[in-house]
Write a structure and sequence with these properties.
The protein has about 110 residues and is an all-alpha fold. It has one domain. About 95% of the residues lie in helices and about 0% in strands. The protein contains two helices and no strands. It starts with a helix and ends with a helix.
């Protein structure tokens, strides 16, 4: 993600530098406006492409997280079921042992 932020910052920096260069260049107003328009169109395309790329990456990450969360939830449910079964077995054993001890005491 840091590379994406750096690339986006570099893109905006380059666009800002280009605009500053055009504004300070000794050109006619009409030429300057045409250059600015071309630059704006290109920057818009670049930003739109980068936004689409980020959107696709975010979708992939979200799908991955949902899949992993589902797996973890399933694992937890299995562990809870195992633990409940173990406790049921231990409780039955304790009940049986208690009944045996009561018989011995009588």
């Amino acid at each position: 993600m840091a590379n994406g932020k750096w690339a986006l910052g570099a893109l905006f920096g380059a666009a800002a530098g280009f605009v500053a260069g055009i504004l300070t260049a000794p050109k006619a107003g009409k030429e300057t406006r045409e250059d600015l328009k071309k630059t704006a169109v290109q920057v818009k395309k670049d930003v739109s492409a980068k936004a689409d790329e980020v959107k696709h990456k975010a979708t992939d990450v979200a799908e991955d997280v949902v899949g992993k969360a589902g797996k973890v939830a399933g694992d937890v449910a299995d562990k809870v079921s195992e633990t409940a079964q173990d406790l049921k077995t231990k409780a039955a054993n304790v009940a049986h042992d208690t009944q045996e001890n009561i018989r011995k005491v009588k």
